[in-house]
Amino acid sequence: MSYVGDISYSLYLWHFPAIILIGEAYRGIADEGSPIPAAIALVASFVLASLSYRFIEEPIRQSRWLEPRKRTRSARSYKPMIVAGTGVVAVLAVVFAVLVDSSGRYAGVSADAPAKPTATADPSVEDTDDEAVLKGFKVSIRTAIAATQWPAELSPSIDTVLAGYEHDAPVHACGVNPYPGVDTCSWGSPDAPVSVVMVGDSTSIAYTPMMRSLAENSNGQLRVTTFAFYSCLFADVVRQSPDPNAKKACAERNELAIGEIAKLKPTYLFITNVPSALKVEDGSELTMSAYEAGLTRFLDRVGPNVGKTVFLTATPNEKNLMKCYSPRISPKQCTGGVQPSWEAVTGAEKRVAAAIGGVWVDTRPVYCSGDVCPPFADGIIIRFDATHITDEYSVHIAAGIVALLNQSGIRLTKDNSEEATS
Predict the structure, then answer these.
(1) Which CATH number, 3.90.226.10, 3.40.50.720, 3.40.50.1110, 3.30.499.10, labels domain 130-421?
(2) Between 20 and 30 A from 123 (CA), which of 16, 183, 222, 402?
C-alpha cells in the first residue's frame, strides 16, 4: 500500500485521461457498457503512474537541482528549460487528446457520401407514380445498407441524437397532458373532404410530422387531427408503467379520443401502436390474443363513426443509435433486421383489420430492404432510438406512405372519401 501512496499523485494525474480515452475507444463496440473498458483504464492508470513515478518524479525529486545549497549556477540555468519542457509536454498532451478526438469524430466519414441530405420536396396527397416513388426508397435504402462509412452530413446530426432528440414542440405538446385541444392538434382545412384521426402511442406521435405536412400541402383536400399519447396504446388494455398516474392518464386520453371521434366522424382512423413486447398491469406479458381483444373492444365503440380503420405499422424495432453508434466503425453496426416482436404485434393488427373490414399497411418498404433496416437513408437519420423515427424522416417518407396507402385502397383525396364512408 505504501507504493500506491508513493504513486498516488501520478495516479491522480493519469486516471482521468485513461478513463476518457479508453472509454472513447470502446464506444460503439460489443464491449461498451461492460466492465472491460473500466478494467483496462484502471490497469493503464497504474502502469502510466508507475512509469511517470519511476522516470519523472523520482529523478527530479532526487536531483541536486532541488537542493538549494548544492544548486550550482549551471543547475539554475536549467530551470527555465525544465519549466519550458514541462509546458511543452502539457501542450503535446492536449494536442494528442484533441487529435484522438478529431480522428475519432471524423474517422469513417466517407468522402464519397453526399455532403448534404437529399432535399425532400413538399409532400402531397395528389396522384403520383406510386411504383416510382417506392422504387426510389428501395434504391436509397439499399445504398444505405451497402455503406461502410457514415455520410459527411446527416439530418438531424449525430450530435443532436446523442444529446437527446426531441420531437417538434407542437407535435410533442399534443402527446402530453393537458391536451391542447382539437383545433391546436389539427392541421389542414376544416372543410377538407377527407379527414384523418390519429390514435396510438408515441409511435403514432412520430408519424404526426408526416401527416401534418401532408395536410398542410393538400390544397384543402385533407384534415388531420391527432389524439396520440405517449406510452398509451389505443387498445382496451393496461400497460405496466413506473408512473402511478399513467393508467389514469392513458384511460382519459383514449376516452377523449373516442368521444371526439364520435363528433368528428373521420374518413379514416389511423392506428399506430408500439410493436414491442409489453407487460400489462400485473407484470405478465401482453399476449397477442389479449391485444387483439383490447383493440376489438375499442374499435367496436368507434366503428359506427369511422369510415375506415387503417393500421399504419410503426418502424420495425431496431438498434438504438445512441448505443450502437461510433464514429470509428461502419454504420453496419447500427443496421439490423425486423424483430419478432414487430412480426407478432403487427400480425395481431393485421388479423383485427381483416375481421372488421379495415386496412393493414406494411410500412417496411420505407424503412428496410427485405428485413434489413439501415440507420439512415438519403442522408437522414431514420430512428433516434430503437423505436421512434425522427421528425425529419417522418416528413421525408410522406410520399412513400401515400404510395403504400394508395396501393392499399386508401386515398387521401376527395375522389375516395365518399367510397370510404359509404
Answers:
(1) 3.40.50.1110
(2) 183
CA distance 362 to 383: 17
Residue 107 corresponds to which cell in the numbers above?
474517422
Residue whose C-alpha is closest to residue 200's, from 294, 114, 120? 294
pLDDT recorded at residue 395: 98
Q: Which residue has the higher pLDDT, 274 or 60?
A: 274
The grid coordinates listed for 111 are 468522402
From the list 21, 15, 17, 23, the residue with the least C-alpha distance to 43 is 15
Cα end-to-end distance, the chain, whole Å = 85
- Whether 331 and 145 have beta carbons less than 8 Å apart is answered as no
Beta strands 372-373 and 336-337 are antiparallel
With 0-12 CB in 10 A as exposed, 13-18 as middle and 19+ as buried, what is 116?
Answer: exposed
Rounded CA separation 359/406 (Å): 11
| CA distance linking residue 27 with residue 24, whole number of Å | 5
Query: Which pTM does this prediction carry?
Result: 0.75
User: In terms of Cα–Cα distance, which of 80, 92, 13 is closest to 46?
Assistant: 13
* Residue with grid cell 382512423, as numbered in its chain: 269
What pLDDT, on a 0 to 100 scale, did the predictor assign at position 45?
A: 76
What is the mean pLDDT of the segment spanning 3-23? Answer: 77
> Which amino acid is present at 409?
G
Beta-carbon-side half-sphere exposure of residue 417 (alpha carbons within 13 Å): 16
Q: Taking residues 143-168, report their average pLDDT.
A: 94
